[in-house]
């Protein structure tokens, strides 16, 4: 019987290779990455406090030095290591709830230890729980600078990071990317001096200025970071413009007839942004415009008029929406406007049967369908366009960058090297600061006016204990001829969150309101079932619609004037604002009731207070940015874009303005400086910014 050959196991990785892998996971691949990995905070290890004095510093960090008097493992109330440290002035207990056997040996009586931690008063006097400590010789020198504490990944100690960063600082090229006259004009400190100070600040530097990042060294870092971002985005914009696009210069019969048959006049804001879009579409390079507008401001009709211009100019247009409900809303509304004017509109989603899908794809490929509306099914293989001139992406932040590029590339004409024009829409208003910083590569149009006749929405916050009163309010509204939404955050029971579920609420409301028809719609239903319920609600056959957040965007039922949001404290501000925007679309006074579970945390309180105080989407977005910070607020852009690590858009607006102006100047006058600055700050990551 043949003997199977033994395969040799892969050689074990060395400690250095393992550490390099861990650093790479944190994005630290080069020496300059390490040098720009700046401290989160600092610890003052430059002085020793006598133990007796530390005892009076409860709640504050202190560093003490003494001899271990006793060291033992105790088992009451749980297993822990308790070490007594003694100096000439008194004693202090160090308590470790998690420890290794080697630590007990390391901290045996008679050992001299330097320990730093927060002092608190325990049962046996002053103590530190899990202090940082090291074994030292008598008279060991103290550090001459504050000790940096770095953001660390799993398995990377502060000591390792400090060594790696110090080694990297001895190897990098410190040449300043910005010339001295520019630094003087901007009153910025040199790069090397700033970085070295932040990694090893002398003890006389203001710790407060380091911590709140107002120190001039931090200002230089923030400016450089903002400048790199502005340069990269502007360069990406230039690269896109170099590609070229088919100019869509005709606003012909379709555009004219479309406007003439609308049962309403465009608002001043709609007319303004339409002109901005039309001017872009006439250019021989691709439009890259973000159309912002609050809930109900009329973005859809502007998008449809942009599509009409593309069709008038002999091209196709495609509109992609993130959910089937939203895509279907757009399809119904736009087809109702377009088809009487002789425009074939195709409908393409993942839930279509194979035959229907093939028929729709044939219409698109032949060019018979001039406008295509659907979900991400538009970017799947097998979907070929005849001549795609305009791509419209609704709620663009819900698509990954790859998906948005895939749709744009459907219209890529390799021979002519042209790409389609792109219009992105968002009902989540982005504060001006954020738009200038993160969307510096886009033109931004804002519809800042609501159509006439929209009624203001009154918002109330109500404790869950008053559910019965809310149910009575719903009943009364329906008897007056109105309809209501009741939104729940989860479909199935989750013991951890103990949230009321959509299915339970539906059953409870059916029981409490036997004379009303209560519908249910959630994300796990088949699209056809979902649409059946939505159609019933649109026709007023269903009085109360219990739903999860699938109704967050795009649902337009003017007769619905009451919105109840269950467990409102679990939703983000942007979601609450979107949900509230489903009512107030008709002439009846509308109300939004936010049911919450006590007690509320600080963030939840701030959110609910904001919802009560304002219905202005831009003000809500501004406060949302304050509460969450830009990283989380825009986690939505999904572009792989490095969020700002150092600059704060609330406090550093003046730096954003400066960085934008300097970026424009450098791009025109000093391409070599641009290359050097981007290489330093973005390394090989610049491609992430280009979509």
From TrEMBL:
EC numbers: 5.6.2.4
CDD domains tied to this protein: DEXHc_RecG, RecG_wedge_OBF
Domain Helicase ATP-binding stretches: 280-447
One MF term in the entry's GO annotations: helicase activity
Pfam families: DEAD, Helicase_C, RecG_dom3_C, RecG_wedge
InterPro entries for this protein: ATP-dep_DNA_helicase_RecG (IPR004609), DEAD/DEAH_box_helicase_dom (IPR011545), Helicase_ATP-bd (IPR014001), Helicase_C-like (IPR001650), NA-bd_OB-fold (IPR012340), P-loop_NTPase (IPR027417), RecG/Mfd (IPR047112), RecG_dom3_C (IPR045562)
Keyword line: ATP-binding, DNA damage, DNA recombination, DNA repair, DNA-binding, Helicase, Hydrolase, Isomerase, Nucleotide-binding
Enzymatic class: isomerase
Catalytic function, reaction form: ATP + H2O = ADP + phosphate + H(+); Couples ATP hydrolysis with the unwinding of duplex DNA by translocating in the 3'-5' direction
Residues of the Helicase C-terminal domain: 470-626
Annotated family: Belongs to the helicase family. RecG subfamily.
Cited function: Plays a critical role in recombination and DNA repair. Helps process Holliday junction intermediates to mature products by catalyzing branch migration. Has replication fork regression activity, unwinds stalled or blocked replication forks to make a HJ that can be resolved. Has a DNA unwinding activity characteristic of a DNA helicase with 3'-5' polarity.
Protein name: ATP-dependent DNA helicase RecG
Gene name of the record: recG
């Amino acid at each position: 019987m043949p003997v199977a050959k033994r395969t040799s196991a892969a050689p074990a990785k060395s400690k250095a290779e393992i550490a390099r892998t861990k650093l790479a996971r944190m994005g630290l691949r080069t020496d300059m990455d390490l040098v720009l990995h700046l401290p989160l905070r600092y610890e003052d290890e430059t002085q020793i406090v006598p133990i007796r004095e530390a005892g009076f510093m409860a709640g504050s960090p202190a560093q003490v030095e003494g001899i271990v008097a006793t060291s033992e493992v105790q088992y009451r109330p749980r297993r822990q290591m308790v070490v007594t440290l003694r100096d000439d002035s008194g004693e202090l207990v160090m308590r470790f709830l998690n420890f290794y056997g080697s630590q007990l040996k390391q901290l045996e009586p008679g050992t001299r230890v330097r320990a730093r931690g927060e002092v608190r008063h325990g049962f046996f006097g002053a103590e530190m729980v899990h202090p940082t400590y090291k074994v030292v010789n008598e008279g060991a020198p103290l550090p001459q600078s504050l000790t940096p504490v770095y953001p660390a990944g799993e398995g990377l100690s502060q000591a390792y990071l400090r060594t790696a960063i110090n080694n990297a600082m001895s190897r990098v090229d410190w040449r300043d990317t910005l010339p001295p006259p520019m630094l003087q004009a901007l009153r910025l400190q040199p790069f090397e001096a700033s970085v070295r100070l932040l990694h090893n600040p002398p003890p006389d530097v203001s710790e407060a200025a380091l911590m709140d990042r107002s120190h001039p060294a931090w200002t230089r870092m923030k400016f450089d970071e903002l400048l790199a971002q502005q340069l990269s985005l502007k360069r990406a914009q230039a690269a896109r413009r170099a590609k070229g696009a088919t100019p869509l210069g005709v606003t012909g019969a379709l555009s004219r007839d479309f406007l003439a048959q609308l049962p309403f006049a465009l608002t001043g804001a709609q007319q303004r942004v339409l002109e901005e879009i039309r001017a872009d579409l006439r250019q021989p390079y691709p439009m890259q415009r973000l159309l912002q507008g609050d809930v109900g401001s009329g973005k859809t009709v502007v998008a449809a008029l942009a599509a009409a211009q593309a069709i008038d100019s002999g091209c196709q247009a495609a509109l992609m929406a993130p959910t089937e409900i939203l895509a279907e809303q757009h399809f119904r509304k736009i087809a109702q406007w377009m088809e009487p004017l002789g425009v074939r509109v195709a409908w393409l989603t993942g839930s279509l049967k194979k035959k229907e899908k093939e028929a729709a794809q044939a219409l698109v490929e032949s060019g018979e369908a001039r406008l295509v509306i659907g979900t991400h099914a538009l970017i799947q293989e097998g979907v070929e366009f005849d001549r795609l001139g305009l791509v419209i992406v609704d709620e663009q932040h819900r698509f990954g960058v790859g998906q948005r590029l895939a749709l744009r590339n459907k219209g890529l004409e390799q021979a002519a090297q042209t790409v389609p024009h792109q219009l992105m829409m968002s009902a989540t208003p982005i504060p001006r600061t954020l738009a200038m910083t993160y969307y510096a590569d886009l033109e931004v149009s804002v519809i800042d006016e609501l159509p006439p006749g929209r009624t203001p929405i009154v918002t109330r916050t109500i404790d869950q204990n008053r559910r019965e009163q809310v149910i009575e309010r719903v009943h009364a509204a329906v008897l007056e001829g109105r309809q209501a939404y009741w939104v729940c955050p989860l479909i199935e029971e989750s013991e951890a969150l103990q949230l009321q579920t959509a299915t339970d609420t539906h059953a409870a409301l059916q029981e409490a309101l036997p004379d009303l028809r209560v519908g249910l719609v959630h994300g796990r239903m088949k699209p056809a079932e979902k649409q059946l319920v939505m159609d019933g609600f649109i026709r007023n056959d269903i009085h109360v619609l219990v739903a999860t957040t699938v109704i967050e965007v795009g649902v337009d039922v003017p007769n619905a004037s009451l919105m109840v949001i269950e467990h409102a404290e679990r939703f983000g501000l942007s979601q609450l604002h979107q949900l509230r925007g489903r009512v107030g679309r008709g002439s009846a006074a509308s109300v939004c009731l936010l049911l919450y579970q006590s007690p509320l945390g600080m963030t939840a309180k701030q959110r609910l207070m904001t919802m009560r105080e304002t219905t202005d989407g831009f003000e809500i977005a501004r406060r949302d940015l304050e509460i969450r910070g830009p990283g989380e607020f825009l986690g939505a852009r999904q572009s792989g874009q490095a969020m700002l690590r150092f600059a704060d858009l609330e406090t550093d607006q003046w730096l954003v303005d400066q960085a934008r102006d300097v970026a424009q100047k450098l791009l025109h006058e000093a391409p070599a400086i641009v290359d050097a600055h981007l290489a330093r700050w973005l390394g090989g990551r610049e491609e992430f910014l280009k979509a």
